[in-house]
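example protein:
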Amino acid sequence: MTQESLVPIEEYLTAGVHIGTKYKNGFSNEFVHKSRPDGLKVIDTAQTDLKLKALIRVVSRYEPHEVAIMGRRENAKKPLNMLKNLVGFDVYTGRYLPGMMSNAELETYKEYKLVIVCDPLTDKNILEEAFSLGVMTAGFCDTNNKTNKLDLVIPINNKGKKSLGLALMLLAKHYLINRKIIKESEFTYTLDDFSDE
C-alpha cells in the first residue's frame, strides 16, 4: 500500500510546485518528469512529496534551536518568518556572514545540527560553511540547482511564492504534530498565511 501524500497532488500542482526552469543539469535528472513544449522542465511531484516527508522526519528529531533555515530570495521571506514564529527555527533572510558556525569567537556564533537552504545558489554562504563543518544539509532545489553539497534534496519550484510557501507550511505543520506540540486539527493556517499573492 502506498503512503498518502502530504496534500493531494492537485494542491502541489495548483501551487506550481512542479514548474521547473528551462535548464536541467545532471543533478536534477532523476527528479524531472518531462519537458514541456515551451522548454520548461516538469518536476515529478511524487518525488517532491517523498523528499519533503524525508525532510520532515529528519527535522522532527531536532529541537528548534538546532535547526537553521535560510532564504535570501524575496519569495522566501514571508513563509520563513511564519515558520520562525510557529516553530522557532533560526531563520536567515538577509546576508549570512561566514564564520557564524565556525568561529566561536564571534558573538553571533551558533552550532546547528541541520541547515536548510531555500536555494543552494543564493544561500551558498551558509551551505558551504555547514558542508565544510560536516553539518547535515538539506535544500529546496529547482532543476538548475547544483546539489552536490546537500545531504537531502527536495525537488521543487523554489522560485514560486506559493510553491515554497506550501512546502514551508507543510514543514511547520508536521514538525509541530510530530513533536506533539499540537494535534493535526489545531493547525489552522493556510497557504495564504505562508505566501504573498
